[in-house]
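Note on ligand handling. Small-molecule inputs were canonicalized before submission; formal charges were left as drawn, and no protonation-state enumeration was performed. Where a ligand contained multiple stereocentres, the stereochemistry in the source SMILES was retained. For flavin mononucleotide, this procedure yielded the string shown in the input block below.
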Amino acid sequence: MKVLLINGSPNAKGCTYTALSEVEKILNENNIETEMIQIGNKAIRGCIGCGGCKSTKRCVFDDDLVNEVIAKMESADGLIIGSPVYFASPNGNLMSMLDRMFYAGDCFAHKPAAAVVSARRAGTTVSLDDLNKYFSIRQMLTVGSTYWNMVHGSKPEDVLCDEEGLQTMRNLGRNMAWILKCIEAGAATGIKAPAAEREKWTNFIRN
Ligand SMILES: Cc1cc2nc3c(=O)[nH]c(=O)nc-3n(C[C@H](O)[C@H](O)[C@H](O)COP(=O)(O)O)c2cc1C
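Structure output:
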């Protein structure tokens, strides 16, 4: 089993990386394979809503990481997205990528997912809300921890002093590993993910 971790920070080894690494360590200790990729330093264009991805399940712009990350997600069993907080939101490049990735891809349903954010001080819960919405609309199973999934600091050394933040990351890793094993055990006994109804798509309700 494998979990894909996406670091949406431009800092390859910054605070977000430090938080994600703490989750990754616990996943690995529980025999869950991991792959961490960094996308926050890439110039990633936004979605243009062309709908070209409907049939291909790939973004029409094959100009950056988006289609590559979709391919990685297709073979992953779980997902963790980390971001620094920028003006009380996740990183803009990350959001551009997620809009395109979650609109084009068809590889998310029934996989566990979690968002992790890092801030110097504030804007964490609203940033978590932004990221968690991608999971809920794609039938992912949001994994929680013992506090909201956040760490605080301006540099990795600060995060390493955020003992509760790191504890929250470790507990998130344990919960993610556990749910992955539950899903695997369920599948082995014949419990399949439910098929979703899809025929209704109303833009607004009429009488
Ligand atoms: C453009 C920009 C905006 C930021 N906005 C916030 C903010 O709204 N709230 C906050 O607490 N920290 C803010 N920060 C600080 C970062 O969120 C914080 O230092 C974070 O831990 C950096 O993570 P990283 O090392 O993974 O990049 C901002 C930093 C930048 C560069």
